[in-house]
Amino acid sequence: MKIFKLFFIIYLISSFNHLEASNDDIKSKITKNLRCLVCQGQSVYDSDSEFAISMKVLVDKKLEEGFSEIQIYDFFKERYGEWILYDPKLNKNTYILWLLPILIFLIGGAIIIKSFIIKKN
Amino acid sequence: MKNKLLPIFITFIFIIIFIFFYSGLKNTNIYTPEIKINNKIPSFKGDLIYSDETINSSNIFKSDKFYLLNIWSSWCVPCRKEHALLMKLKEIKKIEVIGINYKDKKINAENFLTELGNPYEKIIFDQEGVISIEWGAYGVPESFLIKDEIIIKRYIGPLDKKLIEEMKLIIK
Amino acid sequence: MLYSSIGYYALILGLGISLILVYFSIKNFKNSSTLNTKILSFTFLQFFLVVISFICLIISFVLSDFSNETVFNNSHTTKPLFYKIAGTWGNHEGSLLLWLLVLTLFIFIFFLKTKNQPLKYKLLTLIFQQIIIIGFSLFLIKTSNPFNFIFPTPEEGMGLNPILQDPALAIHPPILYLGYVGSSIIFSSALAATYLNIVSKVWASHIKKWIIASWVFLTLGILLGSIWAYYELGWGGFWFWDPVENVSLMPWLALTTLLHCIMILEKKQVLTSWVIILSISTFTLSMCGTFLVRSGILNSVHTFANDPERGLFILVFLFSLIFISLFIFFFFNKSSPNNSNSIFWLSKETSIMINNWFMMYFLSVVLIGTIYPIFLEVLSSQKISVGPPFYYKLIIPFLIPFLIAMAIGPKLKWIKSNIEDKVYLISFLIISIVLSFLIIKKFNSNLLINTILVSSALYLFFITLRDFFIKKYTNVSQNIAHFGFSLLILSILLNSLFSSEIITNLKVGETFTSSNAKIIFKSINQKEKKNYKSVTANFSIENLDGTIEDLSPELRIYNQPNIVTSEADIKTTFLSDKFIVINIVQNQDYFNVRYQVKPFMLWIWLSVILISFGGLISFFKKEYEK
User: Fold this and answer.
1) C610 found inside a domain
2) Which of C75, C300, C354, C522 is most buried, judged by most C-beta within 10 A?
3) Using the beta-carbon criterion (under 8 Å), do B33 and A81 form an inter-chain contact?
4) Which of B133, B154, B156 is the best mutation test for A, with the most CBs of A within 10 A?
């Protein structure tokens, strides 16, 4: 019971927090999620190639025009394909990608619990 | 029974993984985006090099001709080679060549054209490279064959004689 | 040219000795009850031959012998001596020779140092290790020969990438390989022990030192790689979830898990099958990593030159090892009798099992994230990218219970325990939560998950700190290592929450003012150095509190190969790093300037050193304490 009260208090306090994001933060977040097309395994944020620099300018422009984060990702996905995004979307191609680790976690848990149940019997 | 099943199952899984890796070896790890054609052209606004006026994309591709949009720069070496072929295209009435000057200095671009000739009806000055990204390009040179505001063909890399001949057939 | 020949024939001889060793070992295994001393001599001879081969390669590099293809591809007469030497192992062929060196060294040390184990076990370990050595020798000689001749001899070499000319990067491979390759002994000996059915407390005590040694080196190796990435790659990051990095993290996760399990096995005869599986997996993951990185199957920032032929060889070799291990495991492993009914749920054994559970989950996240794109592409020809957002989303939520379990776990007694200092445990929990809430609220980063994460890290921090000062628990090494881990997570969290960055374009003489700092681009100097032109930009940064700092990032313009690199200037203090880097903007006369303030960077490095230090203490402990 004590633990529940504790968690409830924590939740109340933390719910006074609200997400605050400046334009710079969003820009960093987006460019970190975009993959540089002409580099070997770098994000647009990290890269200083010509292409990456243009991408960064374009992200700025789109943000100014009022594009949301998702719209910007869609914009680039349309032109360059899924590969350009570092965060794989949950779609039919990536179900296994996201769910397999969780499945493994659950299986691990089951094995551990099973080993205790065996003992009890 | 159960004791025999597990080893067989696991061995089977590893064989599958082996097959996957083996097939994966043949694929290249370099990514080239899929060439998408039969899409509508992107709409954009840009400044023209010689006149400094801003132009809207809807005004460029208006008439019933074929258009070849060519992305080029003065510092791009393969662009020099394809430039001569572009000059030949200028002579064909049915097609109009539009240029996007990518990440360049105006002075260098103008010198380039003075030296090698100007095949472009209009040249858009894309200093920051953002217009090219609107087109889905990612390097120089790249070209797009357009008709009725639809992209019919896309060329990544410099044009060569063979591609130009193909283009001429399409135009006819 | 002479040295290349000597090096090459030394390798061939070494391979021949492998066969001799296998032959004698099998004979000795069947016949005698005492060790055939020839075997020890041959093991040393094999190591010695690989040393000779390695030294010959170094000499070829130092002498700039461009008749050697590897030297030609990776060196240049103007390279400083230190980097000529380091260039030996900074390329594909040379680094494989380093693998071979460590493989042969470790089996020799194993033979020398292993006293109280049955003879058959030592011989069998040798045989398995020789299988690995034979595989690598063949790989080297057939597809990656460091001693290929080219004729006519070129005048000059192709140069080495200037980014790789760096002290940290020079020692990063040797240390990393001591870890990676060190796990080969664990692999070989686990297979030997399984076959002979001697996986027991005695074996656990014996192999534990090897596990710790391998683990310490691997931890430090990864650290060096991160430090190098931080100051050399030029944008202040130190971990990118790049395939090459993931590939070093995976064996580390398996090895850490193994380390924990071996502590249980030392005391009771349980989890033997699991320990064997982990032992096999660690080295398998190292090999798998070698495959992923050298075959060209993945796209990454720091891959070696890629070659599908090599990839195929490693793939077949890797899976041969896997199938051998599977065979031995399934045919010879006798699982221990189920005496886990003597464990109460609240006990140290359980907490270690929970550790295993979470670690295997983390391992699966990294493994799946790294190789999934390969599998998807084979199935559907679609290429996707799996990057940092994937790993963070799956790992961070699970870190929270993991940290708390790390705090409470060591306090539990073996077999059964009542938690004694319940008051302390709960009060620390409350303090952690409140403290982290205050920190996060004050500095204006408002995210619920951050609060919870920081508080669980703080919790571990306080608990381990208190334990250290009370000296209640005699297991100092584990205490320090866990404390180090809490410090690591805390530093990483606080660093990512409170880092700030200014990116702007400036010409010489211009100033940029923001709410946090004023950046003044004072001047620029140019200097001609031995193999590059140096352009140094001098900045003055004025902080909010009035202090002024001078920073001078540099651009290096190399001629062979034709590259421009950016050298950041970093001012490190205990509290934060100030990091500045400039880049040329093509066709323009201004520079792109990136200035970052990164708090607690130093603590990230120190905490990893602390973790390794904990392991080191454990290694040198004379007796295992109850």
Assistant:
1) no
2) C75
3) yes
4) B133
Alpha-carbon span C142 to C238, nearest angstrom? 36
**What pLDDT is recorded for position C223?**
96
- pTM reported for the whole predicted model: 0.90
User: Rounded to 5 degrees, what are φ and ψ at B156?
Assistant: -105, 125
Cα–Cα distance between C553 and C583 in angstroms, integer?
Answer: 10
Domain B45-171: give its CATH superfamily.
Answer: Glutaredoxin (3.40.30.10)
What's the structural domain count of chain C?
A: 3
Within the 84-143 window of chain B, which residues sit less than 8 Å (CB to CB) from chain A? 103, 128-130, 132-136, 138-139
- Confidence at residue A7, expressed as pLDDT on a 0 to 100 scale: 59
pLDDT at position A112 is: 86
What 3-state DSSP class applies to C67? Answer: coil
Instruction: Write the pLDDT tens digit of every residue in C86-108.
Output: 989 988 899 999 999 999 999 99
Say if residues B125 and B48 touch (Cβ distance below 8 Å): yes
C-alpha C460/C-alpha C441 separation (Å) is: 21
In a domain? residue C158: yes
* CA gap C460, C491 in Å, rounded: 13
Q: Does C141 score more than 90 pLDDT?
A: yes
* Cβ within 8 Å of B, C 360-419: 374-375, 377-378, 383
Same domain? For C218 and C365 the reply is yes
Under 8 Å CB-to-CB from C245, ≥6 apart: which residues? C222, C225, C239
Q: How many CA atoms lie within 13 A of B90 on its CB side?
A: 15
Q: Rounded CA gap, B96 and C233, in Å?
A: 45
Q: Are C319 and C284 within 8 A, CB to CB?
A: no
